[in-house]
Amino acid sequence: MLRMMTAALGALLISMPAFAQVEPFPAHFRIQEIATNGATIHVRVGGTGPAVTLLHGYGETGDMWAPLAADLMRDHTVVVPDLRGIGLSSRSEGGYDKKTQAGDIAGVLDALKIDRTDLVTHDIGNMVGYAFAALYPARVTRFVLMDAPLPGIGPWDEIVRAKALWHFSFGGPDAERLVAGRERIYLDRFWNEFSADPKHFSEASREHYAKLYAQPGAMHAGFAQFAAFDQDATDNKALLAKGKLTMPVLAIGGAKSFGTTMALVMNAAAGNVRGLVIADAGHWLMEEQPKATVAAVRAFLDEAAERRVTPAEVAVLAKTGGGAGTSGVAGIQTTVLAGNPSESGLYTIRLSVPANTRIEAHSHRDTRSATVVSGIWRIGYGSKFDEAALKPLPPGSFYTEPAGQSHFAQTGTEVVVVDITGYGPTDTVYAQP
Predict the structure, then answer these.
(1) Which of 42, 222, 276, 427 could hold 88 in an S-S bridge, CB 3.0 to 4.6 Å?
(2) Which CATH number fits domain 318-430: 2.60.120.10, 2.70.40.10, 2.40.30.60, 3.60.130.10?
(3) Cα separation of 73 and 87, whole Å?
(4) Residue 325 pLDDT greater than 90, yes or no
(5) Distance of CA 263 to the CA centre of its chain
(6) Is residue 3 predicted with pLDDT exceeding 70?
(7) 421 beta partners
(8) Which residues contact 29 (CB under 8 A, 6 or more apart)?
(9) 337-357 residue pLDDT tens
(10) Are 62 and 56 in contact (CB under 8 A)?
């Protein structure tokens, strides 16, 4: 019994964050330490499907992305590095300009054999993400930036004159002496003043990040991120002179922080920009309004998103026994291949229907099209199950489910797999409840 308790405790400790109890990443994520470009980057990787890379900013680490990573991993390979010098990545002597850190991200993706990725970034992560997208535009499919400016681009000169941003010029040996042992006090100023409501930046998160930033060399590296802004501005102007970004861009601002200014910044840097403001949020979007932020990112990435998923990758995607757009009959397994049938937008689900299953007449609010993947699927139209009206459809067959029109189905002696595509949000209404 003692041995079992010890093993269980060990497994629990492995699954917990290194410091205070912020939301952990899902258990299926793995950790890799990737040496590249003169630094060792601490990276979390999980999920299957097209890649999405999440870049954090100052005052946090990649740990901030846990809620978003948990959502995206069901149909993406999610890559979450700690930026050079921050969190559990190495603290190199230099290289804190954002072009160099874009090279860090390129090296991480190369090591993981990822050619193309969506980008989701926040704060200083925006700056690294922009440099990456400008230097390697063919590697970025869609780009989400949250609540921070880009050095040298758009209204940068006006933004840096704001009194609240005095920390952009704060650094050096004496500044490091001032904050040594007082990292929590220094960081509380960011979390308090840049939140719509400081209570939404939790005590657990404050403890967690303060301990990480109190590690030897961490504050020095953090100050170096800001000290590089003049060089970043020069570099960004040169990159922009070669042309604006062309991939789809979503610029998200907190209503109590950058708000619509985020879209103004990105319209100066990209040609295909959509702006979005998250209500009741300041700068710390993932802490203050995680559900709204995750939903906004998910919806944007799902729009015409690239999907290249092998049968082996489909096999490891999460399966449920029901859900939006399914008949809810016991034994049916549902896999979401793309989108979310509960939310607005395109979706595709895969149904695995057991042998000898009868599904009574029902309808859905959206028009759907379907392909039989395996087995003989027998389907008919009408408000009441009628075996004589069933048409057997072998693998490769196609059929439709018009909005509001009842249909029914049945399997024979084998399991049937069907892929269904529609435009959510969908539902299921039985003709005879």
Answers:
(1) 42
(2) 2.60.120.10
(3) 22
(4) no
(5) 20
(6) no
(7) 348, 369
(8) 44, 45, 46, 69, 73, 78, 80
(9) 887 888 766 788 899 999 999
(10) yes
CA dihedral 205, 208, 212, 213 (to 10 degrees): 50
Q: Are residues 153 and 268 in contact, defined by beta-carbon separation less than 8 angstroms?
A: yes
* Domain extent listing, the chain: 25-302, 318-430
What whole-number distance in Å separates Cα of residue 88 and Cα of residue 40? 9
Reference 349, options 330, 328, 323, 331; nearest CA is: 323
CATH number of 25-302: 3.40.50.1820
For 107-137, the pLDDT digits (tens) are 999 999 999 999 999 999 999 999 999 999 9
- The tokens describing 240, both together, are 């922009």
Name the H helices within 247-310. 261-267, 285-288, 290-302
| Cis check: omega of the bond before 433, within 30 degrees of 0 | no
What are the tens digits of pLDDT across the range 394-430?
999 999 999 889 999 999 999 999 999 888 788 899 9
- AA letter at 369: S
Token representation of residue 168: 């952009």
**pLDDT at position 183, please?**
95
Omega before 26 cis (within 30°)? no
Interval 233-238 mean pLDDT: 98
Q: If you compute the radius of gyration of the chain from its CA atoms, what whole number of angstroms results?
A: 25
The 10s digit of each residue's pLDDT in 167-224 is 888 889 999 999 999 999 999 999 999 999 999 999 999 999 999 999 999 999 999 9
Strand order in the sheet with 416-424: 319-320, 333-338, 345-353, 416-424, 368-374, 398-401
3 state DSSP class of 291: helix
Q: Is the CB of residue 363 less than 8 Å from the CB of residue 426?
A: no
Alpha carbons 261 and 254: distance in angstroms, whole number? 10
